[in-house]
Design a protein that fits this description.
- The protein contains 20 helices and no strands.
- The longest helix has about 40 residues.
- About 40% of the residues are buried.
- The N terminus and C terminus are likely disordered.
């Protein structure tokens, strides 16, 4: 049986030795950086509209005047003027949180107006994200899992394709991965310090996109659960993490309250997102450049009261849209439930919502080429959830991703909204893959051991 033990040990160890080598630690982020750079030069620049124009306008004003918000001259901008939610453009700039415009303003101040510089920064952010995914996989499971997770993330079609979008996605993925790394490190070391830093990271990440702070809150609740089960000081670490994340938002919330004269959130795009996701007449045809009937299905007297385009302020427009969503929730709860289920499925779709739209099935064939990647990773991810269902690390991924899916079920969901969180998906997929490889090696070892044992008995006889 010694032969079986040796083969089993070798089969289990080769992946861990390779994953733990310094060469791999350097090769993964370097490979991601090079591949993303190839995408930068291979793909045409195709900014998301009107999102990127909004960020560019806000960053230009920040750089030139040191002020945040829209002037009246936005009406002279063709892209902004054609935006479906132009009723939200006002002096507060609350249509978008300030993080990405501030980053663009810093890039503009330091490097000038250069699209390539921003894309290279995105590629660098992706390299760091891959390194963090490797580190998270290694701490959560094993070096082999971390290595495979980094390799899988290298080929992520959405993040490769995002190099031409000039959007937030690379920076969102980095911020989320950094926060998750802090949470995992805190749980692994039973330490408060990494938890507090994770709270700060998730709080600052909310200035890029609010859902990242929500994800941080879910991760903090998971850490609280882990600390409670172990009766350890992680309970205090989780509480401090959640407190720090919340306090990080205070300066901008106070600024918005002063600007609007009432208490508000980080941005005022929530009503629009809810309406687009849950009020059903629009979903098959909606695009940022489409003409949207914001009062479809309403009686004539209600149109004047609820049409967001006729609202005196952006805040009032946001309230009107939320009122229409609540109206549908009361009058047609079954339709609302179907819309939420549809949005959750779209959030996890292997092809974009644009491809799903009627008439555009064959206009973007490259997206269908990437679908097998996602389907394979999703299958491995589900296998990882099942295989590791008794491990608390797996419940971190299930809790965060489940909560984020539920959140996006209530709004206009796109698969690209999932991309920043896909680091957790690839880690669980890699865990399932390493578990399968280990079992195959174990089966081979048992088979070899059985053969060796039979030969030995025959010789002794």
């Amino acid at each position: 049986m010694r032969t079986a033990g040796v083969i089993r040990d070798r089969g289990h160890a080769w992946l861990e030795q390779l994953g733990g080598s310094r060469a791999i630690v350097l090769a993964i982020p370097l490979g991601v950086f090079i591949l993303r750079l190839v995408m930068v030069w291979a793909l045409p620049v195709s900014p998301l509209s009107p999102d990127c124009r909004e960020y560019a306008y806000l960053s230009e004003r920040l750089d030139q005047e040191g002020r945040y918000g829209f002037r009246e001259d936005w009406r002279e901008d063709r892209v902004l003027c054609g935006s479906a939610w132009s009723y939200l453009y006002d002096g507060t700039g609350m249509v978008r949180p300030p993080g990405y415009p501030l980053l663009l303003a810093a890039v503009r101040r330091g490097m000038g107006v250069n699209t390539r510089d921003l894309q290279v920064l995105g590629a660098m952010a992706e390299a760091l994200t891959a390194l963090l995914i490797y580190a998270c996989g290694r701490i959560m499971f094993s070096a082999g899992t971390g290595m495979l997770a980094g390799i899988i993330y290298m080929g992520h079609p959405g993040m490769n394709y995002a190099m031409g979008w000039l959007g937030r996605e690379p920076f969102l993925a980095l911020a989320f991965s950094l926060g998750v790394f802090g949470v995992i490190l805190a749980a692994h070391r039973d330490s408060i310090g990494p938890a507090v830093l994770a709270g700060l990271c998730f709080g600052v990440a909310g200035y890029l996109k609010e859902t990242l702070t929500v994800a941080g809150g879910l991760a903090g609740l998971w850490l609280l659960w882990v600390g409670w089960r172990a009766r350890s000081r992680l309970v205090w670490g989780a509480v401090l993490m959640l407190l720090v994340a919340a306090l990080t938002w205070v300066p901008w919330l106070v600024r918005n309250a002063r600007a609007c004269g009432t208490w508000t959130g980080m941005s005022n795009l929530g009503g629009t997102a809810l309406w687009l996701g849950l009020v059903d007449p629009n979903w098959k045809t909606f695009d940022a450049s489409d003409e949207v009937d914001w009062t479809a299905g309403l009686a004539e007297e209600q149109r004047t009261l609820l049409d967001p385009r006729l609202a005196p302020t952006a805040l009032e427009a946001d309230k009107r849209l939320k009122a229409m969503v609540m109206k549908q929730a009361v009058e047609r709860p079954a339709d609302m439930a179907r819309a939420m289920g549809r949005n959750a499925l779209i959030f996890w779709s292997p092809v974009s919502r644009t491809v799903i739209r009627a008439g555009s099935l064959f206009r973007r064939p490259l997206e269908f080429l990437s679908a097998p990647y996602y389907l394979g990773i999703f299958a491995l991810f589900l296998a990882g959830l099942w295989v590791g269902r008794h491990r608390q690390e797996v419940w971190l991924a299930a809790f965060v991703l489940g909560g984020i899916t539920a959140l996006h079920a209530t709004c206009c969901a796109y698969p690209r909204y999932r991309f920043p969180f896909d680091g957790m998906v690839v880690i669980l997929a890699a865990f399932a893959l390493t578990t399968w490889i280990g079992k195959r090696a174990s089966c081979s070892a048992d088979s070899a051991g059985g053969t060796g044992g039979s030969s030995g008995r025959s010789t002794d006889a």
